[in-house]
Amino acid sequence: MIGFLNGKIDLLQRPNVIIDVNGVGYKVLVSENVYKNLTVGQKIKIFTYTYVRDDALELFGFLEIDDLKLFESLLTVSGIGPRTALNIFSFGERQNIIEAIVKGDSLFFTSVPRLGTKNAQRIIIELKNKMGGDGLVDLSGKDLIENTEAIEALKNFGFSVVEAQKALRNLESGLSTEEKIKQALKSLGR
């Protein structure tokens, strides 16, 4: 299928974007968070998910490959289709979605239209243990337990769980919690 499109934006029709790639216009559905930052004539590289039905072929677009990977993970959840998964991206960035899954925040998901409590809980249950791959979140039990205090401290400094875990992942083992926080803050630029 189509992995990505590289061209310029020819037309904006919420929630669709028409991207001109060498004279061919591709209609791509994007989240509201992506749409609001686009302008006609802008050059763009957009990663795509191709959805084929009996009566239609649709492209769903993402500016970052990790967003596409998370979108594909959401599609593995029973009862979640591509339009609902894309709607989730309209209510939060990738880090917000991952944090909602990790924390079990079903209220985040129920704020998305056409996504009820049952499916919100299903997303959390089915994806919570899958968030370790692809650099999204490392949820290995030992790592999470050892770094819980440091993660909470970094969250108090305004960092997300994902940012905190990425910073802590590269530190040498055997450091005190205080040392972990200091070194993580240095690597995060504070």
Structural overview:
The protein is 45% helix and 20% strand. By secondary structure, it is of the alpha+beta class. A five-stranded mixed barrel has the order 1-2-3-5-4. The protein is globular. It starts with a strand and ends with a helix.
> How would you name the CATH homologous superfamily of the largest domain?
5' to 3' exonuclease, C-terminal subdomain
Total count of helical runs of at least 4 residues: 9
The radius of gyration over CA amounts to 19 Å
Q: What is the architecture of the largest domain at the second tier of CATH?
A: Orthogonal Bundle
Mean pLDDT: 85
**Sheet of most strands:** 5 strands, mixed, barrel
Total count of domains: 3
Structural class: alpha+beta
Helix content: 40-55%
Q: Do you know the CATH topology of the largest domain? A: DNA polymerase, domain 1
Count the strands?
5
Q: Order of strands across the widest beta sheet?
A: 1-2-3-5-4
Low-confidence stretches at least 5 residues in length (pLDDT < 50)?
137-142
The proportion of strand residues reads 15-25%
Query: Topology as H/E string?
Result: EEEHEEHHHHHHHH
The gross shape turns out to be: globular
